[in-house]
Amino acid sequence: MIAALVVVFRESLEASLIVSIVMAASRGIEGRGRAIGFGLMAGLAGAALLAAFAGKISSMAGGMGNEYLKATALILAVIMIGWHHVWMGKHGSELTGQTRAVGKEVQEGVKPLSALAMICAIAVLREGSETVLFLYGIAAEGTAGGMLEGGLLGGAAATFLGILLYFGLLRIPMKHVFKITGLLLVLIAAGLSAQAASLLVQAGLLPSIGYDIWNTSKILPQDSALGLLLHVLVGYDDRPMGIQVVVYVATLAFILTPSFWVGGRQEDRTARSG
Amino acid sequence: MTSVIMFAMNCPKTTQLSPPGRTPTRMRLLVSLAVVSTVLSGTAAFAADTPAVAIKNHAFSPETLVLPAGKRIKLTIANADKTAEEFDSTDLHVEKMIAGGQTATVFIGPLEPGTYNFVGELHKATAYGTIVAK
User: Fold this and answer.
1) For a Cys staple, A200 with which of A128, A205, A221, B76, CB 3.0–4.6 Å?
2) A261 contacts in chain B (CB < 8 Å)
3) How far apart are CA B82 and CA A5, in angstroms?
4) Contact A134 B84 (CB under 8 A)
5) What ipTM was predicted for this assembly?
6) For the whole model, what pTM was predicted?
7) Is A138 a residue whose pLDDT tops 90?
8) Cβ within 8 Å, pair B7-A133
9) B72, B109 in Cβ contact below 8 A?
10) CA dist., res. B25 & res. B29, Å (int)
């Protein structure tokens, strides 16, 4: 039972934390609850589908179907976070009420809602299918009783941590909250890119460029509570491959650079009009 | 990879990021294409031989594999059990879920000479093994 609890907790923590950050990052955007709820349901349905076709998918693309699929989902999530970041750079001040006029795009509903829903869906989908497979395996072995309860408890514990984080983020004053959630999402995106790179190395598509660029598994193991939390939130890896470091830095640069431009332009405009 | 790039190009929302004329979207796309192609062209040559491990009754056989160092290796893992197993190795930077009765492949290396441990994440007590790179 404890084993199942730990496995399901670990698999669902990332989804839970990402969803709570997305919830906090979309404060003040109308219809976000429905969009994120839809994302979650789509993610769960996708996870069940993936698990049902696991055999077929993993035998696709020369046995690398699973890696390609997951890497593609991760890269999509990164693109969505990047787009959200740029959008918030343009409209964040309207949502916090710092600008009196609500922008045309906010009013007309050109919002990053679909992007946010997609980020949540991918977060759930990614580890969800493996959790389903794992629980299915337990059920197939006939030892379902305590293990299934453990799994449910693990999922509940991860959800609870997500809710804690959400209410923690809610306490941040509106003026700063989007800066913080925005930064968290960008760091998460960089971490997701690094994970995508790792999958593509495993699939033989990318070179590893060195196995352990550093090894901090003795100081801060990635499977410890703090290590796991940092892994989810900022992409911490206790033994990264070279390609992961490269991709992490490239993603940060990739997302931050265009939004700096947009942010700068926005300030120019406000300065001119004011 | 291609599908992702196509998605970025077709996504109507990405084009709404900024007004036309000074949009950074196209440039970002070019940069991403450049990054992807650079990374792809750097892919190492793969070794031809394919060593294999089997999982039965939640244990690996053989439990010790001797593999050449300094080479990219394609490793095949056949799960003969009815239940899923996750082939997991922090030493080898590999984590692969294998459904019951399925065979999976992972690429590892190039390895420095030394020993590398792996486990079956879902049955750690009985499923473990070592790769020795020489």
Assistant:
1) A205
2) 24
3) 22
4) yes
5) 0.72
6) 0.77
7) no
8) no
9) yes
10) 6
Cβ contact (<8 Å) for A75 and B100? no
Beta carbons within 10 angstroms of residue B117's beta carbon: 13
Q: Mention the CATH class of domain B52-133.
A: mainly beta
Interface of B with A in 32-71 (CB under 8 A): 32, 35, 39-40, 42-44, 46
pLDDT, tens digit (0-9, with 9 covering 90-100), for A163-201: 999 999 999 888 788 888 889 999 999 999 999 999 999
- What is the layout of strands, in order, in the sheet containing B85-89? B64-67, B128-133, B114-120, B85-89, B94-98
Task: Please measure the distance between the N-terminal and C-terminal CA atoms of chain A and give it in whole angstroms.
Answer: 62
Distance CA A195, CA B93 (A): 11
**Which of B97, B112, B118 should be substituted to probe chain A, the one whose Cβ sees the most A Cβ atoms within 10 Å?**
B97
Tokens of A96: 């916090």
Tokens 């703090």 sit on residue: A226
* DSSP line for A12-53: HHHHHHHHHHHHHHTTT-TTHHHHHHHHHHHHHHHHHHHHHT
CA gap A159, A153 in Å, rounded = 10
CA distance B30 to B67: 40
Residues in chain A: 274
Instruction: Report the pLDDT averaged over residues A245-266.
Output: 78
